[in-house]
Design brief:
about 350 residues, alpha/beta, Nucleotidyltransferase, domain 5
Length: about 350
């Protein structure tokens, strides 16, 4: 008998639902919220209200595209955290209500586990090579920057993490500082392709071990722009492509230096990336290049699985379900999770 899992993701500003049968993706529907763009960032109250409006039609559409009736579902996987509490509450409450109505179990999922396991989403007609355990995952997003040793689908060890800001936040702050818009990551990436990554230099932190820090490089950019603009008011407009390219290169250098160190220390040769920043073209190209140079097997999630989506929650929930895990109906969402 097949195991059919409905996944629900509502950790931030994307409402998403996906259906997986025995590990194979049948549908993945995402409703994005454009309302936040004019504010230059996600407004939590507006996000939770939009989730309330979107979740019923999104789940209905996911089931319809998959050709699955609600009565055929085996379990419902949902994001418990980390994320915006109001947004998480919508997804959690919906999963509880639907699970109770259908008399099927619900399975809570750590949002970060979903990003890490995105490489295991299988699709009919697509032959996808999967990393072998244990492997390393560079987990990078607006809220997280970590190097994770993935021992199994349910066992993770954090080898290094940011001690202050996340790399995704650095991208967004750079874009905001330069008046380029939101979300900053894709904008910086696009402009960087047209610029010279060696034109300008930015201060890089010297943090021991495998931990990261991105607060200093943001300050470096702030002072750099301030001083150059004082000399030439048109400096930023005339050099924005080179600034973006140089800043992006500096961030990627910081990420890769520690990842190379982690691979050397552990002897692990299978390396992946995950999280929203894993969509960055410069980072993806650099990982592949370093892999060729160092004999790694590198794995890149499809672009559609890099941002927040329910397919990754469904595959993570699938593994938890197979392990016999079930979540009680009195579970509450959490905005922060200390570990995996």
């Amino acid at each position: 008998m097949s195991d059919i899992i409905l996944g629900i993701e509502s950790s931030c500003d994307d409402t998403s639902a996906a259906v997986i049968r025995d590990g194979y993706l049948l549908s993945n529907v995402i409703a994005s919220q454009e309302v936040h763009r004019s504010f230059g960032g996600v407004v939590p109250e507006l996000a939770s209200r939009a989730h309330e409006q979107n979740i019923v039609p999104v789940v209905s559409e996911a089931l319809s595209r998959a050709g699955i009736k609600p009565s055929e579902l085996t379990a419902i996987a949902f994001t418990r955290g980390p994320g915006l509490l109001g947004s998480l509450l919508v997804g959690t409450s919906f999963a509880k209500a639907m699970g109770l109505a259908l008399d099927i179990p619900i399975v809570m999922v750590n949002h970060l586990q979903g990003h890490i396991l995105a490489n295991f989403i299988r699709q009919e007609g697509k032959a996808v090579e999967e990393p072998a355990f244990p492997y390393l995952c560079l987990l990078v997003s607006g809220g997280n920057s970590q190097i994770v040793k993935v021992v199994s689908p349910l066992e993770f060890e954090i080898l290094g993490q940011t001690i202050d800001d996340a790399v995704g936040e650095a991208f967004d702050k750079c874009s905001k500082m330069m008046g380029l818009g939101y979300p900053g990551g894709p904008i910086i990436d696009k402009l960087a392709k047209q610029g010279d990554p060696y034109k300008f230099k930015f201060a890089k932190p010297h943090i021991p071990g495998l931990d990261y820090s991105f607060s200093g490089i943001k300050t470096s950019l702030l002072y750099f722009v301030r001083d150059r603009m004082a000399e030439d008011p048109q400096f930023m407009e005339n050099n924005k492509e080179d600034i973006c390219a140089s800043f992006q290169k500096a961030l990627i250098d910081i990420l890769m230096d520690k990842l190379i160190k982690a691979a050397r220390q552990t002897g692990i040769k299978d390396v992946t990336i995950g999280g929203g920043v894993s969509a960055n073209s410069g980072l993806r190209e650099r990982l592949v290049a370093e892999g060729r140079k160092r004999g790694w097997r590198t794995f890149l999630p499809e672009f559609k699985f890099t941002t927040d989506n329910a397919a990754m929650i469904a595959i993570a929930g699938y593994y938890h379900y197979l392990a016999g895990e079930r979540t009680p109906l009195d579970v509450a969402p959490v905005s922060r999770i200390a570990d995996f």
